[in-house]
Prior knowledge:
231 residues, globular, TIM Barrel, eight-stranded parallel β-sheet, 16% strand, alpha/beta
Amino acid sequence: MAIADNLTHILAKIADAARRAGRDPAPVRLVAVSKTMPAEAVEEAARAGQRLFGENYVQEFTAKAREVREPVEWHFIGHLQSNKVKYLAGLVTCIHSVDRLSLAEEIDRQWAKLDAVCDILVQVNIAGEETKSGTSAAELTDLVAAMATLPHVRVRGLMTMPPFFDDPEEARPYFRELRRLADAVAAEKIPGVSMAELSMGMSGDYEAAVEEGATLVRIGTALFGERVYRP
């Protein structure tokens, strides 16, 4: 199917999942994960109505952002090294993968140069997987409170990547736990902090994520097709 057809299909499934959970589908946004995809694919999706795109690799993203002519919004969703933050400043509206205070401090420094504020999501490694980034649930509230003191950063919610499962139902407890953690942080009423966004769910499990409260689902393969990784 063409990207436009895939987009229509995915948006319908997101809306259906939200309604099954008694939710308004409107606040649930699709982040089209365009890593390894050419600028032409981004523009094709944009012409079909998609406006929000997520990228994982800084060098690939900055080159692609210069090529895309359609009016789109970019989020950065991949693991981020502090020394690469400067290349994102002014190009992305939200960074999903902030997992440590030093990274938030560097985002704050770079956005200060623009006299602007960057929305961030705190990445939580709920499963405690050594191969994945993310703060622990035990450290989350203190980390959010420290980030909240930075004037050019705004904590807007949480992000997680559960372990990979063939059955999306097995990912559901991780989505449910992220929602619980967001509620716990919100209950602390930390000044300047919002838990409005939950970034969770990908091509194989986004319906379960929406049913558990996702507001941002990160979908690449189901929209663009299988990725081609170049050597």
